[in-house]
Design a protein that fits this description.
- By secondary structure, this protein is mainly α.
- It has one domain (2-117).
- It contains 3 helices and 2 strands.
- It has a two-stranded antiparallel sheet.
- Strand 1 (30-33) and strand 2 (39-42) form a beta hairpin.
- Helix 2 crosses helix 3 (68-117).
């Protein structure tokens, strides 16, 4: 009988200890329409910004008819797109430089061949 009472007391202590724990914040994915108009799950992302940046974000969101979260998401996504575009532009520039080098080599070889024919 005493063992059952002790087990019962432990159980109630555990329950009351669980109740006393501070609540934890859990990111619950919420289905929403993303900016590309197809269904995508959103998760919580929390970070600090300066008051000036928050004001800029709020003004841009209002001007564009979006919420601050949507505006921030769009601007972050655009920054990643700009990174990809910059990388592609760098590759194109390297290829253009290589093509210019080949064109210069062809030009020099053509001039050399013309000089041999004279």
């Amino acid at each position: 009988m005493r063992a059952a009472t002790n087990a019962s007391n432990r159980s109630s202590l555990l329950c009351s200890a669980e109740v006393m724990l501070p609540p934890t914040r859990v990111a619950v994915p919420q289905p929403q329409l993303d900016l590309g108009s197809h269904l995508e799950v959103r998760v919580v992302l929390s970070f600090r910004v300066t008051p000036a940046l928050k004001r800029k974000l709020a003004a841009a969101a209002e001007e564009n008819g979006r919420g601050q979260s949507q505006e921030a998401e769009l601007r972050l996504e655009r920054s990643f797109q700009e990174d990809r575009i910059s990388k592609v532009a760098e590759q194109v520039e390297r290829q253009r430089a290589a093509i210019d080098d080949v064109a210069e080599t062809v030009k020099l070889m053509t001039e050399h061949l013309k000089g041999l024919r004279k």
